[in-house]
Design brief:
Blueprint lengths: L1 H13 L3 H17 L18 H24 L2 H15 L14 H14 L5 H8 L1
Helix pairs in contact: 1-3, 2-3
Length: 135
């Protein structure tokens, strides 16, 4: 799971530049220009914004990317998710550590024996695959 989150975050960070913005802006303006049958929307100009539309949308583009990055940090850099990752790693690697002690329903001594046996019989690379085997 964390690998997927990191991949998405790095992909979004790679888009945080003027080249990516200009490509998106050009694509949007081309799309708008190709729709001749749609009447333009009349918008009252705000006194807060004076300048070119391209500059306005550039600022908004970077605000959105920054906000997404903040949301990713808040949602996926939590201690509880790190603990869950440790539990998943124990299931997949067979290496049992003290992070499992906070779950009273799990017996670390039993898992130390059971997980290597499970790994010898089944080769799973994700917790989803392990869950399918157990069903």
């Amino acid at each position: 799971m964390q690998a997927t989150v990191n991949h998405v975050r790095s992909s979004l960070k790679g888009k945080r530049n003027d080249k990516s913005y200009l490509a998106l802006y050009e694509k949007a303006t081309t799309l708008v220009d190709s729709t001749e049958s749609i009447d333009p929307i009349q918008v009252r100009h705000s006194s807060r914004f004076m300048g070119k539309a391209e500059d306005h949308y550039r600022a908004e583009f970077f605000k959105v990317l920054d906000r997404v990055e903040v949301q990713f940090c808040q949602r996926f850099d939590q201690e509880s998710l790190k603990i869950l990752q440790n539990v998943e790693n124990a299931l997949l690697t067979g290496e049992v550590d003290e992070s499992l002690d906070q779950y009273p329903e799990l017996n670390r001594a039993s898992l130390s024996v059971q997980l290597p046996l499970f790994r010898n019989k089944y080769s799973c690379i994700s917790s989803v695959e392990a869950a399918e085997v157990l069903r």
